[in-house]
Amino acid sequence: MSHGHHSHNQKATTFVSGIGNDLCSPFFSPNGKLHAIRQNAGSVITIDNVGNTQVICSTGGQPSGAVYTSDGVLYVSDFGHSAVVSVQPDGQQEPDP
Q1: DSSP letter (8 states) at residue 1
Q2: Which element (helix H / strand E) includes 44?
Q3: What are the b/e assignments for 9-21, b being 16+ CB within 10 Å?
Q4: Which residues on adjacent β-strands are paired with residue 58?
Q5: Residue 77 CB: number of other CB atoms within 10 A?
Q6: pLDDT band (50, 70, 90) for residue 19
Q7: What number of helices (H) and strands (E) belong to the chain?
Q8: Residue pLDDT, tens place only, 82-97
């Protein structure tokens, strides 16, 4: 009886496309919405399941990654500002870019 490791090569399928060639770092908000970074556009966006996007915040820099806290504060690391900026659930951004 073999107990060998089986590797399963899962084929990646396109979820949405045509959003921009600067798209990176997808993540989910606490309420389950898909977000991503548009690095050159300097923004964090939401993406619905048909590809519609909405800008959540603009850092005025070059965001590289982001994460939400459980209480809805969005933290965005930004190369352009050499900083981590936070966006409160009411949309207020600190530090102000």
Answers
A1: -
A2: strand 43-47
A3: eeeeeeeeeeeee
A4: 43
A5: 19
A6: confident
A7: 0, 8
A8: 999 999 988 776 654 4
